[in-house]
Design brief:
With 261 residues, the chain is mostly helical. It has one domain: MetI-like fold, CATH 1.10.3720. Helix content is 79%, strand content 0%.
């Protein structure tokens, strides 16, 4: 019975991964069309991506927006998690649900809401508006791990710090912050991934000067499909896999620190 279960799990995993893996060989095709079998092997499409102005510009925009949105979400998400962890009130559950709602509602609703909020402020088609919109979807990814880390933190540590004469600010930087750094790092990686992979918000909020990599790929799918898109997709797969492995490493480190305590 256990072998049947494992075989079923392997089939499900293959069903999910094979469409992704099939993209990688196409990025090394020497032809100009997405066809199997490959006419030959070549790095011409990677050369086009890494020497083409539009792809490098889109990548730079994605990194710029992603880093800025991650920094903002890290500050706001950590502050929100600290407030939710200490707020003992019946409305705390509602506040937590509202804080996490961008993870639950369809992203198109967040995109439309961001557009109508930013348009009267003349922040559409600007990096500031795009960063703010991405921060909205990134904050919950910071709140969840930091709030979990705070819930598992021994409250006696803060009491012991106060008994030794430390003020709340000193207690935070000397006791609380070192304990939640792994959770903050994990949340920052999730936040960056959420911003970097977004295309829906970028379509509504960003302008021609703020074209991100996913939006450039979407435009390529609509206008002309070439193996250059598969090369970009392969780069993003490698990048996302690296982020995922970093998240796993941070989670394991956080668990080890918790076990030591």
């Amino acid at each position: 019975m256990i072998w049947l279960y494992r075989g079923f799990c392997a089939l499900v995993l293959a069903f999910l991964l094979l469409p992704i893996v099939a993209i990688v060989p196409l990025s090394f095709s020497s032809g100009s069309f997405l066809t199997y079998p490959l006419p030959g092997w070549s790095l011409r499409w990677y050369e086009e991506v890494f020497t083409g102005g539009k792809w490098l510009s889109a990548l730079a925009n994605s990194l710029k927006v992603g880093v800025a949105a991650t920094a903002l979400s890290l500050v706001l998400g950590t502050a929100a998690a600290l407030g939710l962890a200490r707020w003992r009130h019946p409305m705390a559950s509602l506040a937590k649900a509202l804080m996490l709602s961008p993870m639950i509602v369809p992203v198109i609703l967040v995109a439309v809401g961001s557009y109508f909020f930013l348009a009267p402020l003349s922040l559409t088609s600007t990096f500031t508006g795009l960063i703010l919109a991405h921060t909205v979807i990134a904050v919950p990814f910071v709140v969840v791990p930091v709030l979990t880390a705070l819930d598992g933190l021994d409250p006696n540590l803060a009491r012991a710090s106060a008994a030794c004469g430390a003020d709340p600010v000193t207690t935070f930087f000397r006791v609380t912050l070192p304990s939640i750094v792994p959770a903050m790092a994990s949340g920052a990686l999730f936040a960056f991934a959420a911003s970097f992979d977004d295309v829906v918000i970028a379509l509504l909020v960003a302008g021609p000067e703020q074209r991100t990599l996913p939006r450039e790929m979407f435009s390529g799918l609509r206008d002309s499909i070439t193996p250059a898109l598969t090369a970009v997709a392969t780069v993003m797969i490698v990048f996302s896999t690296t982020l995922f492995l970093l998240m796993l490493a941070l989670q394991r480190r956080s668990r080890r620190l918790a076990e030591k305590r």
